[in-house]
Design goal:
There is one protein chain. This protein has helices at residues 5-9, 44-47, 58-67, 81-87, 89-102, 136-159, 165-168, 174-183, 194-197; strands at 15-21, 30-37, 72-79, 110-114, 125-128. It is α/β, with parallel strands linked by helices. The protein has a single domain (5-157), classed as Nucleotidyltransferase, domain 5 (2-Layer Sandwich), CATH 3.30.420.10. Strands 3-2-1-4-5 form a 5-stranded mixed sheet. Helix 4 (81-87) crosses helix 5 (89-102). The longest helix is centred in the last third of the chain and has 24 residues, at 136-159. The model has no long low-confidence stretch (mean pLDDT 95).
Length: 204
């Protein structure tokens, strides 16, 4: 379970955690969140439920998403499908992370980033492998990024029905890949991703 151990080891404050959602899907933007938590004010019951967003049940994710702004400073950024296709998914993820940091109301003294690589930032950065399971700040960022992106995909599913984005969030599930063959691509598909590239009939 994540805790504040990594944050406490940082000599300077404040500490921000950054994580992303949406590197693997075939459609939609990649979204990143930057979160600064105050250990003194964060309720224990919220801290105990924070974890890697992939293992937190969706109802709990939604509840935490609503509660975290009461106890945290939050910035959210995204990179578009066009940026993913022109830069590649890693560089687009770094763009989203940089934008999330820029949207924090204060600049942190240090950033903990989930993963083994990190973008250039205007402050020191420490990559943390599997950080969303170790750091509460990164876990909170994981929740914010995941829920934000899932809601974007639900909205896009209303405009482009048939791909199942409302429940697969744009990932390459059998349902989604079958719909690509049947319906073709949309402007929200990542054409640099092979399953999409192979279905280049665009539906507007």
């Amino acid at each position: 379970m994540p805790d504040f151990s990594l944050e406490r080891k940082c000599r300077r404050r404040p500490v921000a955690g950054i994580d992303e959602a949406g590197r693997g899907p075939l459609a939609g933007p990649v979204v990143a969140a930057a979160v600064i938590l105050d250990e003194r004010s964060l309720p224990q019951d919220i801290a105990e439920r924070l974890d890697d967003s992939k293992i937190v049940p969706p109802p709990v994710r939604s509840e935490l998403f609503g509660l975290l702004p009461l106890y945290a400073l939050i910035g959210v950024g995204q990179a578009s499908v066009e940026e993913i296709d022109s830069h590649n998914i890693l560089q687009a993820t770094f763009l989203a992370m940089q934008r999330a940091l820029q949207r924090l109301p204060v600049m942190p003294a240090i950033v903990l980033v989930d993963g083994n690589r990190a973008p250039d930032m205007p402050c020191p950065v420490r990559p943390v492998i599997k950080g969303d399971g170790l750091s509460l700040s990164i876990a909170a960022a994981s929740i914010i990024a995941k829920v934000t992106r899932d809601r974007i995909m639900v909205d896009l599913a209303r405009v482009h029905p048939g791909y199942g984005w409302e429940h697969n969030a744009g990932y390459g599930t059998p349902e989604h890949q079958e719909a690509l063959k049947r319906l073709g691509t949309t402007p929200h598909h990542r054409q640099s991703f092979r399953p999409v590239f192979e279905s280049l009939t665009t539906i507007y």
